[in-house]
């Protein structure tokens, strides 16, 4: 059986006992002197009671003097713990240690009061913003129980907050939003609407426990607007190309019809007919190539990823360029899962553009090497760069605009096709002017 624990003496009693011990020598001396003199018993009892009364009275006064400030501080701290920041201690004098403690407690109360006021204002602002935005916001705790919802979320679930707060996600048909990819597009029906929804899920902590914040936005209207803009751009581009081809065809066809209707034909009318038909054929062929280029861009297949060694692939592509202007800078041995055929198409287009930019038609001697292809390994990604020493890019804004080209015989889809291949591999393609020299830098990054 464990021995009983000793009862701890209270702090105020210790102060009282130590005060008695401090005055004990003086009391002993006083009683000794009192008994040494020849006083009557009545006087001795009177003086003895006076000595004991003073001794105990001062000890109790010291005890009270120590206990009262401690009780005051305890009351102040209790008020702070309970959220009452309006209570202040009197006698907070900086000239003494006890006053310093009380003054610091007062300052702490004022600071906490300001912080709580700021937190309340921030919370009110947050709730106002959440109520005004048009996206649905749901907050779930670690048990997938709904803890917070805004007005748009209530409209999406078609129930007020009072009926859905505290309910599990499966009862609200939102359990699938708490699993899988954190950012994705949903095509489903909610009680408040049907369509395509953009969903984003993030994790935050409250009270040390993980919570999930789910944001759901209706994409139907933005998608319709973007689709309309895309169709308008496409119609403008195709209409422009059709007008450029059909206008001269119509004009020349009318001229040829006029020649055929003349009763008296000129001696060279056959040459005119032949020349006009050749122009019509050329414009029709150009229009056919334009439509084939658009079909090629619109029907790009998904990449078929296989392990591919980067060094041999780039050497094979560089060997196709016979101008002697391309230099391959060796990099590390890398094997990456990608579509080799599509990557070759990207490198061929980039190298071709670089060679055309770097080549000077007026140069008669063998041109120096002015195009360099290199690759390197980045954290989690492969980077392939193609640099040239040409004049650089004059219009960076229209690089990836479909069918925009500055070349007389260009189709305007090469760079667009290259960027689409890179994005299908979850990578990026950027073009920029060099800062160390004249020319352009093409940077292709593909994740491992």
From TrEMBL:
Domain HAMP: 64-117
Catalytic activity, as annotated: ATP + protein L-histidine = ADP + protein N-phospho-L-histidine
Gene3D superfamilies per the UniProt record, alphabetical: 1.10.287.130, 6.10.340.10, Histidine kinase-like ATPase, C-terminal domain (3.30.565.10), PAS domain (3.30.450.20)
Classification via SUPFAM superfamilies: ATPase domain of HSP90 chaperone/DNA topoisomerase II/histidine kinase, Homodimeric domain of signal transducing histidine kinase, PYP-like sensor domain (PAS domain)
Keywords carried by this UniProt record: Kinase, Membrane, Phosphoprotein, Transferase, Transmembrane, Transmembrane helix
Main EC class the enzyme belongs to: transferase
A matching Pfam family: HATPase_c
Domain Histidine kinase: 237-448
GO-annotated molecular function: phosphorelay sensor kinase activity
Keyword Oxidoreductase tagged: no
Protein location: Membrane
Domain PAS, first and last residues per copy: 122-167
PANTHER family: HISTIDINE KINASE, SENSOR HISTIDINE KINASE
Protein name: histidine kinase
Gene that encodes the chain: dctB
């Amino acid at each position: 059986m464990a021995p009983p624990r000793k009862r701890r003496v209270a702090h105020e009693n210790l102060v009282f006992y130590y005060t008695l011990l401090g005055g004990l020598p003086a009391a002993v001396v006083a009683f000794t002197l009192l008994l040494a003199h020849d006083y009557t018993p009545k006087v001795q009892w009177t003086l003895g009671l006076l000595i004991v009364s003073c001794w105990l009275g001062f000890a109790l006064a010291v005890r009270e003097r120590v206990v009262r400030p401690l009780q005051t501080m305890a009351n102040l701290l209790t008020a702070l713990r309970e959220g009452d920041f309006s209570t202040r201690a009197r006698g907070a004098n900086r000239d003494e240690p006890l006053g310093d403690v009380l003054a610091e407690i007062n300052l702490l109360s004022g600071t906490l009061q300001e912080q709580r006021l700021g937190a309340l204002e921030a919370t009110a602002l947050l709730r106002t913003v959440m109520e005004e935005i048009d996206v649905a916001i749901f907050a779930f705790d670690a048990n997938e129980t709904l803890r917070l919802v805004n007005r748009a979320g209530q409209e999406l679930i078609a129930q007020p907050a009072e009926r859905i707060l505290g309910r599990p996600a499966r009862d609200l048909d939102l359990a699938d939003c708490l699993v899988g990819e954190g950012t994705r597009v949903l095509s489903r029906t909610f009680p408040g609407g049907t369509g395509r929804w953009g969903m984003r899920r993030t994790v935050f902590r409250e009270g040390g426990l993980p919570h999930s914040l789910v944001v759901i936005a209706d994409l139907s209207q933005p998608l319709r607007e973007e689709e309309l803009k895309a169709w308008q751009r496409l119609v403008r581009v195709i209409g422009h190309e059709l007008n450029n081809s059909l206008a001269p065809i119509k004009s020349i066809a009318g001229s040829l019809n006029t020649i055929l209707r003349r009763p008296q034909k000129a001696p060279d009318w056959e040459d005119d007919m032949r020349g006009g038909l050749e122009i019509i054929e050329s414009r029709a062929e150009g229009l056919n190539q334009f439509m084939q280029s658009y079909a090629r861009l619109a029907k790009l297949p998904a990449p078929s990823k296989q392990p591919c060694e980067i060094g041999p692939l780039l050497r094979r592509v560089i060997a196709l360029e016979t101008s002697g202007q391309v230099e391959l800078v060796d990099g590390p041995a890398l094997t990456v899962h990608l579509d080799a055929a599509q990557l070759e198409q990207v490198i061929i287009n980039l190298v071709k553009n670089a060679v055309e930019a770097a080549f000077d038609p007026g140069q008669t001697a063998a041109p120096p090497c002015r195009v360099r292809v290199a690759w390197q390994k980045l954290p989690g990604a492969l980077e392939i760069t193609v640099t040239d020493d040409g004049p650089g890019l004059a219009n960076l804004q229209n690089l990836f605009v479909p069918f925009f080209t500055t070349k007389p015989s260009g189709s305007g889809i090469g760079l667009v096709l290259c960027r689409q291949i890179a994005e299908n591999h979850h990578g990026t393609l950027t073009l920029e002017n060099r800062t160390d020299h004249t020319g352009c830098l093409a940077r292709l990054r593909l994740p491992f």
